[in-house]
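Assemble and predict.
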Amino acid sequence: MPQILVPIIVPAIAGGLCLLIPRRVKGVREILTLAGLVWAFVASLQLFGAWPLSFTRDWVVLGDLTVQFDLILNHFSAFIIIFVTLFGLAVAVYSMSWLSKDHDGRRYYGLLSLTIAASTGAALSNSLLLLLIFWEALTAILFLFANLGRNEKAASEGAAKSFIMLGLSDAALFLAVALIWVRFGTLSMNELSIFVGDGATISIYILMMIGAITKAGAMPFHTWVPALGRGAPTPVMALLPASIDKLLGIYLLARLSLDIFSIGPGMQLLLMTIGAVTIVGAVLMALIQHDLKVLLSYHAVSQVGYMVLGIGTGVPIGIAGGLFHMLNNAIYKTCLFFGAGAIEKQAGTTEIGKLGGLARAMPLTFIGMAVASLAISGVPPFNGFVSKWMVYSGLVELGSRGMSSYWIFLVAAMFGSALTMASFVKVLYSGFLGQRPSEFARVREAPWPMTVPTLFLAALCIVFGVWAKFPIDRFINPIVHGSVATAASGALDASVGFWNPSLATGLIILGILVGLAIVAAGKLTTRRVGHVFIGGNKPPEPLDTMHVAGTGFYNTIKETKGLKGIFANAEERIFDVYEMGGRFGNVFVQGLRAAHNGVLSTYLTWAVIGLGAVVFALLSALLRQLVGGR
Amino acid sequence: MASLGLVLNFLVFPGLLFTAVIGLLTQWVDRKVSARVQWRVGPPWFQPFADILKLIGKEIIIPEGARRTGFLLAPMAGLAAVGVVSTVLWLANMGGDGFVGDLIGVIYLLTIPSLAIIIGASASSNPLASVGASREMKLVLAYELPFVIAIFTAVTKVSPMTLRLDGILDYQAANGVLLGNPSCIIAFIVVILCAQAKLTYTPFDIPEAETEIMDGTHIEYSGAALAVVKLSQAMMLFTLPVFFITLFWGGLVLTGWGILYTIVKYLIIITIIVLIKNTNPRVRIDQAVRFFWGPVTVLAIIGMVLAIVGL
């Protein structure tokens, strides 16, 4: 088997076997999944640097239309598959403890491996049609995956919403691919080089962009992410919307905007606007959420804004920043969902209003989540700061080239960053710090398969922040053709500014040591534990009555004039394209309705079966080609 | 050797020690001026130093149910961040290139002390500290918007645009101080108002509000830990004006008569801050949010628009 196929076929086989193994057999599925993913991960590591490598077989021949099974390994796709398989592996380890007996382990592990197979396939595809097939497969898998949530109503609602929104965006992508075929006669991404100028190319670009940013979850096509967050299993959130969907969506957007199309200032402005609106809009919604998982989902949306904004600048350092942010976000967002899952598992709820003071009970989860929270808030010297800094530098460079509105985007991005910090202060406060309600007195730390992946990702947040030179040199710069100068000392050098993360870290640590020395110089030994006093009195026992829940933290903001109306409308989903489409579509389908039973899941099942049939036909054709080709 | 020099720069001059000493002296100026405004005599010049030393000697009481590590470590992180910012600013003014980071690095490092105090207060398990933490965070949100706009007004005026502190200083040396432009005067007014909130000085001492929530965010700190908190506040009082002088007012000149001029510039900013502090009552947090997101942001945007049209 050619090496390039390993990251696709090995997880696919592992996933297929998992689905076949009877439910009663224990332990095999975990081993099979882990083995398949380790193999795929190692193969992806070996593939890094092995380019140019390609694999082409004629797949379907219909008259003069030949569809090729066409894979290619380049720097970008090699980088994507390493992290796709790595996150898959982390989630697989995590799931060993997260999954309880009443979960359907057979489907869960099967779908997990299939997700990885479809994702690596999408990243490696060189043919747009093949990419589309893997893309659709991911949508279908996500639908099945999301349905595994324990709260069935929320889970199936979220799954249906995601399926419809992603399905429609896939349709947009499909339309664009068809248009490209008609107009340019090829679907090979390597050969395409389209100048976006006339109406047709603009529509093709926008259609494809919709496909990419819906997957990534940017506004206005973002509402499936929080809907999914309400019901889907937490590791599924960590795997798909938090990491893989970002990697793939932004991968496609970057390939479109950098390689396939050459876009002008108009399209760049569109991208930047989408980015800026997404950052601020989604983070404002995140600020007022009451459920940890939904809150994190809104941040999964908000962070996409930085990536789209960075790519939209069209300036090398901005693009590099956007791509680095894609990687960084996948790392810390997965880590945060892992932490939320640990809380859910150990404390039994993710309601922010109920939680509190878990840091002492779950110190490892707390450390992991604290690091990831600081990283997503852009606190130096963690990784989120570095990529944000790169995006900001890109914007200032645009400004220096004469774009006078650069500051609007810059201020939106920086203000969004402050709002993100506020939101995570609320998470850390209400989840881990503050007063611990007595019902959580017996909560224990999560088992090691859950804490180890969390801490591993948290460590990556630190490493990629402090030694940002390494990932930038290795993964990002070659894609953008060497945009960020990195000095031997580890400093990053842009034309408009610079940042030396390792030196900053060293000095901060030194400063902390000085602070500790001051404490040590005092009477450290006479530290003692005393009561909390309020107004000179001990607060009434139990301390629960004095519990200040994090939910009310930002009510002032919510009630601020001007924002109040927007929040009220947003909570009633006025701005949700899904709901808008629903209202519009409802009128439209009234006539057709009589002929159908109106049960959504029936339609969706048919849609999935139909998709499965198409994929099956194509795969069997491929197999025939493979056998015939030998 | 270069790295040893840097460590010394950071620890002694112009970093932690120097910043702390000048910061405490400035606090004395603050206390003295406040006292005079209120027809009191005021403390002697060494009072802030004596306070810190006294605090270091006291025992540290950790509240029951607090998260010890977070509670004790947070103030240290705040101290470290102010120290780094101060070093960066001074080295940029002394002809280096700032060596750690540019303007964005400075803006982000300046939010760490607020974040640190929020985390520390959250970890203390006192409900009043929780209220203080919530207010502090809202205050950060409130001033961050106009603050960022105002700072980038200065960047927009510099041509070619740069985020490097030495680049901004060079531009001012060649073309006159930025404060000579109407747009930057507006931006300067905005940053001074934001500084008031960044320092949690009246009228924006809402997170501490002694008469209401008993020093809120600091309520449970005692002994040497409180000394570190107070020290970072003093250092912040010194660092922010230096930042504004660097950005808008031609930087610190450290030779000949320039030293005197620099001190005058510094004292003017301090006096403005202290006078605002002493002549205003504390506002509520929602009023503060509305104030910063309303008139102050509009003012900042006007400044930015003026800068874009070239004023």
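Chain B has twelve helices and one strand.
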